[in-house]
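pinned: reference chain
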Amino acid sequence: MIDYAKALNEAQYAAATCGDGPVLVVAGAGSGKTRTITYRLAWLAEQGVAPEAMLLLTFTRKAAQEMLHRAGLLCDHALAGVQGGTFHAFAYGILRRFRPEWLGERPFTVMDSADITAAVKHCKEALGLGKGDRAFPKTQAIVGLLSKARNKELPLAEILQREAFHLLPYADGLTELGRRYDAFRRESGVMDYDDLLFELEALLRQDARAAELLRSRYRHILVDEYQDTNLVQARIVRLLAGPEGEAPGNVMAVGDEAQSIYAFRGANVRNILDFPKLFPGARIIRLEENYRSTRPILAVANNLLEHAAESFRKTLFTRREGGDPVRLVTPLSDKSQARLVVERIRELLQSHLPHEIAVLFRAGFHSFALEMALNQAGIAFRKYGGLRYTEAAHVKDVIAFARLLLNPLDMPAFERLAALHEGIGPKTAQKLYEAAASGDTARMGKAFARHAAFRADMEFIESLRARPQSPSLTLAAILEQYRPLLEQHYPEDWPRRQQALEELLQMAAGYTELDLFLADLALESPEEEEGGGEDRITLSTIHSAKGLEWNAVLIIDLVEDRFPSRHALARPEDFEEERRLMYVACTRARQQLDLYAPATLYSRAEQGMTHVNQSPFLREMGPQLAEQWLEGFGGGLRRRESGCGTPAATGGRSLSDRIPIDLPGELSGGLAGPSRSAAGSFWGKERSAPSVLPGGEDCQLPPEERFSPAPAAPSHVVAAAAPAGGTRLPQGYCRHRIFGRGKVIRQLPPDKVQVNFPGFGLKVILAEYLLMEDD
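pinned: its structure tokens
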């Protein structure tokens, strides 16, 4: 006999040994839900329930196999007959036995992803859709849209309205294509993955005999990750538990509404929130003891839960003592954020192995600057959720423009650009390259005569070569030239790719030479071909990080429009999903959690840095929940303490009252694009921006912490000599670590100069913190 009381905590014991009837186990992050399900299976077997009467539904085959294996070890392998697997695999098994009526005597097959794509392409061609229209979405994208509409049970036009507005002109054609694809499957006797679920639901509703046989066999149903079910999956569970309108049978659903983050796949958080309504008389058992994270981390997670609009109220706790405080870091910009994260990773590597450290972000493109900084630092990483920046096709296209600008004989770059144009294959590209490389104007004119669009691109590159500009301005011009090609080749998601490409401009803003920028961009950390991830840190989107955990987790870009995503502000349910995403991110950390909220982001529209507000999830936090660290103008960090103009006791005020950022006057006064909080001020309350210089009498930065040594200057830049006796002040052009390149306009003895920075205007700066360009 298993000693359940000894093996489980009180809540786990209650869940594993509960009697008959519906039960919802609300399993907080790191609370041992897998252990609970395993012991539940073992307990049922000990109570005499036949393995054949148990049904375990999961979202991956691996999860089902792991639970059954562990339960089998507890019961001496007495659970061999338990039906366990994914919803789709279970549905396929049932449909093989109880065939849908529309099939008649015909056999049916299930299409794989390649078959589905081929079928949709066949239907598209049969309807004549997209002929001659390069903006019509590609087949693979159409497959995703049709599946998403089906899983969310929404009209396709509504999906386009929410997620692909630029495709709305094709709504009627895509809807007709969906109907044709439905008819094709019936005519051909085939099903896709989504069909399996809907056909099983139809069977349970329409075939009373089959439904009763299934209910009599599966007397105990367990569902893992219930918060990730879509509408049809939840209805299948309810129908298996008993006819609608009658008391449900024995169903145990295990999940956490606070970790429902897959709405884009069709998951519906209402399934778990409404479980007590769908299953009248259901017991609710909360698993709140956390075995993963420290108390400071759980305090931040609980704060997120407290502000949720709707949830099963729970408070995560741990019996572990101590734990490092959560750090909230405010870099001056998203560019300096990458540097600070690299420095922090170096610190963490002194006490953690690389694979025990992770940096998490809301969207794949948010890590691009960090990837570049890690490559420069020689820190190997593995990325999950989106390609590495330089691996994305659209990024390679833009880089090809820049490479040809620097080197007209760069054959790979030439061939890549040529391939973007219709009618140019490998052989034609080779002939065009030879003509271009020859330098013979007549030969080039003849070769390019039939390829006017490609010739226009080459002439554009030549025009850039004739008027050298800064890397950021050059790349901005390339993006404008490339945009028609972007829309043509990636019609289904070009707005997302365009947004990612604009990160290039921010990444290039600190460079004066295009070749240096491209070299750093191309620099790769050593990679191992297979396995061996022990020597690499992890970069991951939060969606890809679910179910994983690390000793140290750093979450970046915690500012409005990035986290939460700008698209989440239109609908309350989307905003709440962003909150759950933040909760998932925080609870991936075992020992250390760092939160990064840059004060400014690069804005292409403003041609410079613009103020941003902290994420609302940070503004909700009480000041006692995290240590607050600010970046000084020298690049160093200092811990924010009480005093220095900030009340020592802040009561219930949020962190945003203390840290959205007391920026020194030279930064706060000159950034473009006001971004105000609800209180009408960037600081979260009405106050004027500090007007004194860093190094002046304002007490925002203690004298000993105002600046740390500036990084080494590029070879063509020399540091300004410190004024001796107030007599030597710089002249000419200079660089500042925040504002970039500027021209000295006026000297202000004894130790200041007035500098004009393009995009920022006139600034008064301490001379010793400028880097002067060597004439």
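why pinned: The radius of gyration is 30 Å. The chain is about 40% helix and 15% strand.
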